[in-house]
# Entry
Amino acid sequence: MFNIFIMKRKILFLLFTVFFFLESNAQCAMCRAVLENAEGQEMAEGINDGIVYLMAIPYVLIGGIGFFIYRKFNKSKKPSL
# Structure
């Protein structure tokens, strides 16, 4: 009985988080105003580089973890001659 209650609660929470989300734009208006200026070209390049770094880090981490898991499972198998 208690297990069914927990499962229903998890499903309800999942549905709530998927269908009822708040849209937030953080500081996009401020960034756009600063970067649209002619003087802001160096700053725009810096922000674009920062976005690329922020985007690449999760891929590098997941790839590294995947590589170590792959290496661990293939290390136990010895090639047959």
Observations:
- Residues 5 and 11 are 10 Å apart (CA to CA).
- The chain has a mean pLDDT of 77.
